[in-house]
Amino acid sequence: MARFGEFPVGLYVPGKTFLHLLDPRTKLFILPLYVAGLFAADTALNLGLHAAAAFSAIWVSRTSILYVLRMVKSVLFLVLIICLVQLQANDGRLLWSWGWVDIYDAGLREAFFMSVRFVLLIIAVSLFSLTTSPAQLAGGLESLLQPLRRLGFSPYDFAFTFVIALRSIPILLEEIDKLIMSRASRGADFHSRNIIRLAAEWSGLIVPLLARLIRRAEYLSTAMEARCFRGGEGRTRRNALKPGWRDGLAVCFIALLLVLTY
């Protein structure tokens, strides 16, 4: 069983690479464009170009390929579910039949495309998280949402809440790992083939997990109160966000990718 704590979304690795030095607003702009182009890719060539772009970003960010393999390993179960769902398509030519199971060429094609898209999506989101610190992400979101202030919307509160939620993902998965190992040491079997027993083992994690998360939330609120946290009112920034030549190059790159795969 893959450890949940290995799931990389929400983690940040400090660095001085091209991706690290991009303005967070630029990354918030190009990530949705990449994802939209990824799911619009309907040929193997277009999907291959998106894969090449993703692995180029991995190389530029100096992320270990072994870490990328760990990222893919952590979502293999979801990839398998996606494959099984897409294989239900009954269009095109029948390739294989056994009992009530029929596999058509259209279903096989969609299973392959959706699986690759999902893996590339996880890689893109993970690279965004690995190269963008929580402070940068909060600053970028707050800056982009400033026009909504006229409507009574608080950009700082939204950005702060979003970053706290994102950073809570690895904490949540780490707590699940700890509970699994703790219960396994007491005889729990999370590899059982008995569905009823397996469901009972997983349901037994709910109450202790909620208790741990509530305790962590109390620690966080106490730490914020001890530091006199009062929200975004009157706050200033040490480093102002200023887009540079790297941001222009990144936008040109994503625009070229979308044009080539349109």
Question: How many domain units?
Answer: 1
String of helices and strands: HHHHEEHHHHHH
How many runs of DSSP E, i.e. beta strands?
A: 2
**End-to-end separation:** 39 Å
User: How large is the count of helical segments?
Assistant: 10
**Major sheet:** 2 strands, antiparallel
Helix percent band? 55-70%
3D shape = flat
Numbering strands along the chain, what is their spatial order in the largest sheet? Answer: 1-2
Strand content: under 5%
Helix-strand category: mainly alpha
Residue stretches low in confidence (pLDDT < 50, at least 5 long) are: none
- What is Rg? 22 Å
State the gist of this model.
With 262 residues, the chain is mainly alpha-helical. Helices cover 65% and strands 3% of the residues.
Textual characterization of the structure:
This protein is mainly alpha-helical. It has one domain (4-260). Helices cover 65% and strands 3% of the residues. It has ten helices and two strands. The chain has helices at residues 24-40, 44-60, 65-74, 76-86, 105-131, 134-144, 155-184, 195-203, 206-226, 245-260, and strands spanning 94-98, 101-104. Strands 1-2 form a two-stranded antiparallel ribbon. The two termini are 39 Å apart. The mean pLDDT is 81.
Short key terms for the protein model shown above:
mainly alpha; 262 residues; two-stranded antiparallel sheet; 2 strands; single chain; 3% strand; 65% helix
